[in-house]
Amino acid sequence: MLNMLLQTTPEEAEVLTDGESVEKTLSIIELIFSGGTAGMLIIGILFVLLVVAIYIYFERLFAIKAASKIDSNFMNQIKDHVSNGKIDSAQMLCAQVNSPVSRLINKGITRIGKPLEDINTAIENAGRLEVYNLEKNVSILATISGAAPMIGFLGTVIGMILSIFEIANSGGQIDIKLLADGLYTAMTTTVAGLIVGIVGYIAYNHLVVRTDKVVYQMEANSLEFLDHLNEPI
To answer: How many CA within 13 A on the CB side of residue 2?
Structure first.
């Protein structure tokens, strides 16, 4: 993905050879391998971070999507069972659904008979655990989105230092080709770092939005359950 995005902006130069123009194309693969050990190491680290970010994004996306699925008639069935005193049936229904919402409701059902404040506290504690499970590894995406550009800039600085070192040891004659190759290599790491950072940032914010929707769903159903318990018989 990184290679494909970088290749969408090729640099083309025309070099006069015996009066004829020859089209020269800039290859990202050539730049990576011409960057020396330091450049290839930086690109390798960024590629690993990109793979980790993509994996975490899709793994969490599928988990959050599964957690948000719940039967629209679930709460009505729970209220009917509770109203009729069928606590075991209500718990069995929660176990069958097996979602964050059903686990919160099940926690409240196990506290029926105790003060409403105790039931609310138990649901809140269970809710914190569910939110923690939903947000598992999502913070890694935030770290990648911030660290990847800095790693790319580190590669840029290293490339610039190496270019200046080569120029300083060229005997006072500046080789424009040598300077251009060094700058290309330095900028490659910057572009790679920014791409990985952007991917991580977008993935992180999308997962946060999806998680917030599930949290709202849990809060709404928990309040509905508590309101039902608070209704006069």
So the answer is: 28
d(CA 69, CA 218): 11
205 pLDDT more than 90: yes
Task: Give residue limits of the domains in the chain.
Answer: 2-56+137-193, 65-135+217-230
Query: pLDDT per residue over 53-81, tens digit each?
Result: 999 999 999 999 988 887 778 888 888 88
**Full-prediction pTM beyond 0.90?**
no
Is residue 145 within 8 Å of residue 204, measured between CB atoms?
yes
Stretch among 22-26, 28-32, 49-53, 199-203 having the lowest mean pLDDT: 22-26
Phi/psi of residue 27, nearest 5 degrees: -105, 130
> What's the one-letter identity of residue 184?
Y
The full DSSP string for 136-190 is TTHHHHHHHHHHHHHHHHHHHHHHHHHHHHHHHTTTT---HHHHHHHHHHHHHHH
